[in-house]
Amino acid sequence: MISEEGFAKNVFAFRSNLDPLLEDFERRVGVSINEDNYEFVILFLISKGLAASQTRHTSVMTIKRALVRKRESIGNDFLNQTKKGDFTLAYLLVLYLSLLDSAFQEFMREIHLEETPMTQIGRDKIPQVLLEGLCQLSRQLQLALIIAARLFSGDCELIFKYKFIALYARVFELLKDTGLLVLHLVQEKLEDSFISAASNSHTNDISALLMEVVRDTRYNSKSWQEKVDTILQEDHISSIDFVNTHVQHHETNESVYRMTLVRQIFYRNLCSAIDGLKLERY
Questions:
Q1: In tens digits, what is the pLDDT along the chain, a chain of 282 residues?
Q2: How far apart are CA 167 and CA 171, in angstroms?
């Protein structure tokens, strides 16, 4: 796992101290955390920060630190981990989309993976293991692609936007079903990007994608949306509609209540630690 071996097990051993507060919070945000989806939920939450310029750097650095720790604990073979609950490749995919190619290649050198086989996509190089995983219907990469699609559909950074379009076009070409999985999430943004694209390569990629969809008389967005919902529900996630959503006036009280729950959970957690019970006196 991204964290040290046994870390999640130790964390969940204390869960009973946080319930029913944590259960209430999970119900309200549509996410239920367990040992098998722990890494994905953390990535899901970190990725929220990529949608805002104020928090983007923090999110990128957090993903980097997680991958560095995994590399230190497992070694060079950490990209080939297949254990249930391991989302290393999902973290790497989101990081790839979030960085300029030069910065991503520099990070690969930092963690001593500069010899990792790469595939050229436009001007960028992506680790071959990511592209192959997407085309082999890797579950963790399907989940990462869903997160990436939701980020793309919002007000994402230009780096993320252009790299996602290029990657999505290649995946669509290699395995159409993987592309169709998230088409209903990205189609509107693709059409907008086609109109405003400043690059001929992106225009050509988007045009080829949209024409392929038009020619596919079997495509039904509802069935693919249901498939995405099923994939998320299997990991106890009911919704990832966190991009470009603005809080309405009637939602203000709910947001305040959620923040209050988080504060109470943190306090309860401190009180459950060694010597933390002293806090209960105050």
A1: 555 666 777 778 888 888 888 888 888 877 888 888 888 888 888 898 898 888 999 999 999 999 998 888 777 777 776 666 678 999 999 999 999 999 999 999 999 888 899 999 989 999 999 999 999 888 889 999 999 999 999 888 889 999 999 999 999 999 999 999 999 999 898 888 777 666 667 678 788 888 888 888 888 889 999 999 888 888 877 766 643 343 444 556 777 888 888 888 888 877 766 554 544 544
A2: 6
- 145: closest CA among 157, 155, 158, 130? 130
Between CA 86 and CA 97 the distance in angstroms is: 20
Total-model pTM: 0.84
- Number of residues that this document lists for the chain: 282
Q: How far apart are CA 247 and CA 226, in angstroms?
A: 26
Residue (of 71, 65, 63, 68) closest to 97 by Cα position: 63
* Distance, CA of 4 to CA of 9 (rounded, Å): 10
